[in-house]
């Protein structure tokens, strides 16, 4: 590969919380429920390029009431750092207490989900529903900033629906309340993940505030990363589904090279993910996670459908490993 084939994205280190946290490469693994557990975050870290990883979203109610499930979701390790914990809720006191707990648990920042479109979250006034209540949203951030010393960041959408695109004005409220950075997923709540991300909304938010703005949506390679930066002026990029399909995407963007990984790299990826899962989960849960993982990362892979078929039919983790061995042996001799 020649230097001419390299894509310079133009990323610079990012400082948050008045310089208390420095992210060398402003590429962020998005918080994705059911996917960005400790094993996947660790895997992405090992592959390189990512500057910050963030947990699955955690309920502030569950966390502050001592829910074992919530505490497990919020658990982070030194090897992941810098790492953020994303929380959701609508009660300022609970969110403030949760922010303090997250800091004590070792997180480098606490992120607030104000973009989740799922009804069971929005009907409680949390997630994207907060974009309809600027006063409450500001109060949440103010309380969290008072209760913790780590940076408080926020992830938002364009707005509640196409008739209420208020991200720039909403971002100003969050900045005034003390938020250290804002991530913008430029689809409204009603769009979920459908359609093309409206990068112009990220640009408008960037122009509306002075704190760092991270863009999220439709970045899957160095070329699209560069395009987002050029169009929006964003200070960083967050990637979610693109990382599920291609866990190497952060390294590719950071280095500027988007070459397809060799087949042996996939073998290491699959086997390493299983090993990381086994460190944190019982076998029955490992099996389900591997099946979900394979469903994403094998899209476009040679004989990927056959591999998925074998993995989905497996009744144990050891059987999955046998399927991997058979697959890579066959592919390597074809």
Quick recap of the structure?
With 334 residues, the chain is an alpha/beta fold.
Q: What is the fold's blueprint, element by element?
A:
Blueprint: E1 14-16, E2 21-23, E3 27-29, H1 38-47, E4 52-54, E5 58-59, H2 60-64, H3 68-73, E6 83-88, H4 92-104, E7 109-114, H5 119-122, H6 134-147, E8 152-157, H7 167-177, E9 181-185, H8 199-208, E10 213-216, H9 222-232, E11 236-239, H10 241-245, H11 249-255, H12 263-280, H13 283-297, H14 304-313, H15 317-333
Parallel strand pairs: 3-4, 3-11, 4-6, 5-6, 6-7, 7-8, 8-9, 9-10, 10-11
Antiparallel strand pairs: 1-2
Helix pairs in contact: 1-12, 4-6, 6-7, 7-8, 12-13, 12-15
Number of domains: 2
Q: What proportion of the residues is helical, as a percent range?
A: 40-55%
Biggest sheet, open or closed, and with what strands and sense? 8 strands, parallel, barrel
Kindly report the name of the CATH homologous superfamily of the largest domain. Answer: Aldolase class I
Sequence stretches where pLDDT stays below 50 over 5 or more residues: none
Strand content: 5-15%
Number of DSSP strand runs: 11
CATH topology of the largest domain: TIM Barrel
Termini separation (Å)? 25 Å
């Amino acid at each position: 590969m020649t230097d001419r084939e390299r894509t310079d994205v133009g990323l610079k280190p990012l400082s948050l919380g008045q310089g208390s946290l420095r992210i060398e490469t402003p590429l962020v693994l998005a918080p994705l429920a059911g996917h960005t557990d400790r094993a996947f975050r660790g895997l992405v870290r090992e592959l390189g390029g990512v500057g910050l990883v963030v947990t699955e979203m955690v309920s502030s109610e569950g966390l502050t009431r001592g829910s074992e499930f919530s505490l497990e979701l919020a658990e982070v390790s030194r090897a992941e750092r810098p790492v953020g914990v994303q929380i959701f809720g609508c009660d300022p006191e609970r969110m403030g207490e949760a922010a303090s707990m997250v800091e004590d648990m070792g997180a480098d920042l606490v992120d607030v989900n104000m973009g989740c479109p799922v009804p069971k979250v929005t009907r409680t006034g949390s997630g994207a529903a907060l974009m309809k209540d600027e006063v409450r949203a500001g109060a949440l951030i103010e309380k969290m900033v008072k209760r913790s010393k780590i940076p408080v960041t926020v992830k938002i959408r364009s707005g509640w629906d196409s008739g209420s695109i208020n991200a720039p004005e909403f971002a100003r409220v969050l900045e005034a309340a003390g938020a250290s950075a804002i991530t913008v997923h430029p689809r409204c709540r009603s769009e979920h993940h459908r359609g093309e991300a409206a990068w112009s909304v990220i640009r408008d938010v960037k122009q509306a505030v002075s704190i760092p703005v991270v863009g999220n949506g439709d970045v899957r390679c160095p070329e699209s990363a560069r395009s987002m930066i050029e169009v929006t002026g964003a200070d960083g990029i967050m990637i979610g589904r693109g990382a599920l399909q291609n866990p190497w995407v952060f390294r590719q963007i950071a280095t500027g090279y988007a070459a397809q990984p060799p087949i042996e790299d996939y073998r290491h990826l699959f086997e390493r993910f299983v090993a990381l899962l086994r460190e944190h989960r019982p076998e029955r849960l490992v099996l389900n996670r591997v099946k979900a993982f394979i469903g994403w990362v094998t899209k476009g892979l040679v004989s990927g459908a056959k591999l998925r078929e074998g993995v989905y039919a497996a009744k144990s983790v050891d059987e999955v490993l046998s399927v991997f061995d058979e697959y890579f042996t066959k592919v390597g001799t074809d």
